[in-house]
Every structure is written in structure tokens, then in C-alpha cells.
Amino acid sequence: MRISNGIILALATATVISCVSTKSTIRNIDNNAPDMVLLKDNTFEIKEYSNDPKYGYDKDYPINVFYLDIKNDTINAERYLNALAGPNGEKLRFRKLEDCCPYPTKRNEIGGVGMLQVYEADWDGPHKPAKLYINIYDKGEVKVPVGLTLRRK
Fold first, then answer.
1. Does 47 score more than 50 pLDDT?
2. Which of 56, 87, 105, 142 has its CA 20 to 30 A from that of 81?
3. What contacts 24+ positions apart, CB below 8 Å, involve 70-76?
4. Is residue 115 part of a domain?
5. What pLDDT, on a 0 to 100 scale, did the predictor assign at position 152?
6. pLDDT over 90 for what percent of the chain?
7. Looking at residues 92-108, what average pLDDT do you find?
8. How many structural domains does the chain have?
9. d(Cα 101, Cα 135) in Å, to the nearest integer?
């Protein structure tokens, strides 16, 4: 018996939607936050450091970077990550690990479910790479997570 791609996609979507709570667990969404300022070097201007050790490192306190076009859903995450550096100003390398943690949102143009993007941030020297949770669907105050710094220009 052959199953079409459309049926598989419909079942996968139904499974994800059924796993989403009707209430979001994300604690730091502020869709009234100002838009990020894009600098010439394809980075966001970030002026504040977070004092919250959960910010960016916990799925309930992601970095909320928002985007405007589903065709390029990683662009704001990359603009944010491009602005960061390691604890002592080291050049940061990053890679997307996965999407996780479905939650309800009105800002996803293809449905009422958002997913967080999980990135690994790494730099030279002995340490454990950082695992950052980034929310591309909603806005919030964007800061530098505890333990990281801003890239020197």
C-alpha cells in the first residue's frame, strides 16, 4: 500500500498541533517591543546584556527575534547570532541543531503553531558549547545571554 506525501504531511501536522498546549509557556514575549536595528554588517544592534541566566538557554525564556517572511525564517536568528562573541570576545561559530518546543502563536502565517529554533554556539578554547533557544515568531527585548559578549567591530 502506497501512502501519499500529502497524507504523511497532514498526519505530521495533526500530531504537532495535538501536542501544543493552548497556553504558551514562553515567559518573555513582548510583541510591542521595538523592531531590531539592522547594521551594515548584517548584524542586529544589541545594546543590553541579560542578567537572567535562563535567557536564551531555557525554552521558556528564548531570544525572541521575529521575522517577516516565512521563505527566510533563519535570517533574524543569524543576524542576532552574528552580533555575538564568546565570553572573552572570541569569534562565535553557530549551527542550527533542530526545531523544538511547539507553542501556540498568532504570528505564524501558516497556522497557529510556532516552533523554537535551537542553535549551538561555539568558540575556540576549552568549554562546553552553548545551546541557545531562538523564537522567530514573536518579539521581545533582545539582549546578550549571560556568559556571552558582543562581537567587536
1. yes
2. 105
3. 70/109, 70/110, 73/136, 74/117, 74/136, 76/36, 76/44, 76/136
4. yes
5. 87
6. 61
7. 91
8. 1
9. 10
Residue 118, phi-psi category: left (phi > 0), alpha (psi -120 to 50), beta (remainder) = beta
CB 101 within 8 A of CB 131: no
Bigger pLDDT: 30 vs 19: 30
Residue 14 domain-assigned (yes or no): no
CB 133 within 8 A of CB 55: no
* Grid coordinates of 133: 533557544
Cα–Cα dist 119/102, whole Å = 16
84 is a domain residue: yes
Each residue's pLDDT tens digit, 8-23: 444 455 555 445 446 7
